[in-house]
Amino acid sequence: MRPQAWAAVSGALSVGLGVIAGELAAAALSPSVTPVTAVGSSVIDVVPPAVKDWAIAWFGTADKAVLLATIAAVITGIALAAGVLEYRRAFAGRAVVVGFGVLGALAVSSRPQSSAVSFVAPAVATLVAILVLAALIRALRAWAGAGDDGAEGPLPARRRFLQAAGGTAAVAVATGAAATGVRSSQSAVTQQRSSITLPAPAGAAPPPEGSFVPEGADLGIEGISELVTPVADFYRIDTALVVPVLDAAEWSLTVTGLVDREIRITFAELLALPLIERHVTLACVSNTVGGDLTGNARWLGWPVRELLARAGVRPEADMVLSRSVDGFTAGTPLEALTDARDSLLAVGMNGEPLPVEHGFPVRLVVPGLYGFVSATKWVTELKVTRFADDTAYWSTRGWSERGPVKTSSRIDVPRANASVPAGDVVVGGVAWAQHRGVEAVEVRADGGAWQRATLARPISADTWCQYTATLRLPAGSHTLQARALDREGGVQSADPAAPAPDGAEGLHTVTFTVT
């Protein structure tokens, strides 16, 4: 390879080791804020809603991994350029590294979880990168110029450079392993979570409003979404690149704003309250027609209305701005937190403490509203306010303020492009109209007449329900559609609409072949 190519490799090795060293420092000192994720979070904050919607549509729950991979590619490009610049002119590449380190520090400073100790990581990353880059380029120059004065042949100098480069790579691998080990040691929070024994619900109402599954709610048809979504399969959409690490013993929630008295509640105090358990279906506003960014779980928590009643909400208030420890905010209509629906400060999901990625130790669960205006994870503050006075994270980015979930349905069987035997074709899926309830589901084939499907018994008006129908179809290609009707007389819209700004519309359409 030519010297400039080796210079580029030197830049990649130097910056790579620096970044990994910074991540190790962050893992030890500031696990919720690292330079790389701070940059990524800043990118998330500034991208237009259309870009975010596109990313979720294309990559789904892998959107964060794609963003981190993109950041890694950009860092690699800068590192390669820094190596070449340093070889051509001393300090030029190091200046690029320092500038990039400053940007990392600025990104860290923008994160709500950052503290003075958070700046150690970008400082370590920058210092390690410039020292290693200078040393490698110095060794490379010695190799490139070796033998010019006859003092020594090129072989020893080349060996020294290659040894230095190989040593840098080895140290980077070891440092990365150490960082992984430190993060694994932070499983103290995971261990703490596993040691928590959730209290039994204070009481369960009879079906269909109870916390258990009534008979006839699960049709048992293969291929239809499970009535209760397993935790491992429950969608995750949020703005956190690194899941916040919170100690439940140190967690607290404050109620502020337009209240008669500010309230602070700890995790232990929350667990001591009469908690209730309810199934609630959550949906992401970015869910496309027929998408999988919706799920139904059994949540254990304390009604938010009880907490707000303690605080004494002033009559001029109409919104509650919930704040996550990572700075995310959601603006929830006050009535959704104070009416008869079971909006919860949730501590449990499907019979176990909240998973860390789903908001441990406490999150909000609000039936009937898309998550972007209600489902704040790692929640630490409820500010009672007015829509006229405060704006939330996504409402400042062009999304709607109130976000009621739209009446929707999805076809799970048959799958798109599937081949099924001729004769009776079993159709099935799920439908939802949270807090209004699903009255009926209708299906049709090839644009024909709508036929009423068999609707499973719903757990409650706040959950999705399964449906099924049997159609006799001849051999050939067929197009299937479904629509839901809610208990307030609403019919699922057939007019296509994108997720932005207040949820997708249209009929899920599946094309398959009968053979």
**DSSP summary: helix tally:** 11
**In what order do the strands lie side by side in the largest sheet?**
2-1-10-5-6
Order of helices and strands: HHHHHHHHEEHEEHEEHEEEEEEEEEEEEE
- Average residue pLDDT: 91
Provide the low-confidence segments as ranges.
147-152
Q: Output the structural class.
A: alpha+beta
Overall 3D form: globular
Largest sheet entry: 5 strands, mixed
What is the gist of this entry?
The protein has 515 residues and is an alpha+beta fold.
List keywords for this structure.
single chain, 515 residues, alpha+beta, Sulfite Oxidase, Chain A, domain 2, 5-stranded mixed beta sheet, 5-stranded antiparallel beta sheet, 11 helices
Description:
The structure is a single chain. This protein has 515 residues and is α+β, with helices and mostly antiparallel strands. Among the domains are: 3-186, no CATH class; 231-397, Oxidoreductase, molybdopterin-binding domain (Sulfite Oxidase, Chain A, domain 2), CATH 3.90.420.10. It has 11 helices and 19 strands. Strands 2-1-10-5-6 form a 5-stranded mixed sheet. Strands 3, 4, 7, 8 and 9 form a 5-stranded antiparallel sheet that branches. Strand 1 (252-257) and strand 2 form a beta hairpin. Helix 6 (120-145) packs antiparallel against helix 7. The chain is globular and about 85 Å long.
